[in-house]
Amino acid sequence: MQPIVEIARKTAVRQQLESARLATDEVIAHHALRRHGGDIALESSLRGARASAALMGVDVDLEFLRSGNLRLDHPGRPIAQAALRVAQEVPQIEAIWRRSPVQALARLHVVAAADLADSLGTDRIGRPRPNDEGDPQDPMDLALPPVADIAPRLMRLNALLLNDKETPALALAAYTHGELMAIQPFGLRDGLVARAAERLVLRTRGFDPRGLVVTEAGHLSVGRTQYLSLIKGYAGGSDRAVADWINHCAHAVRTGAATIEKVCTQFESE
């Protein structure tokens, strides 16, 4: 695979990135944010959590998620609640992310898998997976890299996030998301962590500083099957597949921007 910055410079990819940037700039300038910015950000977080859970196969009604009235015996309750916890954690760990992305990733996993600590042990949470098996709750049929490769790949990602000044923010966010899905570093609920990390890159790189764009809804808009197919392509490492993944992430941003624009309009009309 070429360096991500080189793939991002390809004309077709660059055009997709620019289109997503324009859509984001437009929505973050919406005048409804002046009066309702906090409420709209919360709505983005809620919708993102719902979509992230749906990408793990747990489709929960937005209003049920908002009210917290999921039945105790609802089979999707653990994933839905984990997605909510992760969404709420994202704005809290920006400072950690800026200093040490890998530390922030570990923290996100601790939050995502908090309900599993008693059954699996605290030494299993927030740490690299102990074997070459993926998440049984989110099967993707990926040939995962061996455990010995996790740390080097995470360190490369960490260095890129800390030092890169050339790659467009959205391309870097797509790369971060794709790498974490391909590596599956924790072996449990990696998807929740990867999608939150994508948001963190967009926030901390100034692309979407308030975290308004519902990128998760954009990923869900193509369907879980297509989303996973694109991830498998990315994991294969060809330049074409990586470009397709970045283009998809640009689509996700445009769709996520349209989603929050509708929310802004609703608040404006109240």
Detailed description of the structure:
Residues 121-140 are annotated as: Disordered. InterPro entries: Fido (IPR003812), Fido-like_dom_sf (IPR036597). Residues 100-248 form the Fido domain. The protein has a single domain (4-269), classed as Orthogonal Bundle (Fic-like fold). It is an all-alpha fold and 270 residues long. The chain is 68% helix and 0% strand. The protein has helices spanning 4-8, 11-28, 32-54, 62-67, 77-89, 94-99, 101-112, 117-120, 147-163, 169-183, 190-204, 215-220, 224-236, 239-269.
Helix-strand string: HHHHHHHHHHHHHH
Low-pLDDT runs of 5+ residues are none
Percent of residues in helices comes to 55-70%
Mean pLDDT: 92
Percentage of residues in strands: under 5%
CATH topology: Fic-like fold
How far is the first residue's CA from the last residue's CA? 49 Å
Q: CATH superfamily, please?
A: Fido-like domain
Q: Please tell me the total number of domains.
A: 1
CATH C-level class = Mainly Alpha
Dominant shape: globular
The rounded Rg comes to: 17 Å
The biggest beta sheet is recorded as:
none
CATH architecture identity: Orthogonal Bundle
Number of strands: 0
Region (Disordered): 121-140
Domain Fido: 100-248
List keywords for this structure.
Fido-like_dom_sf; mainly alpha; 270 residues; globular
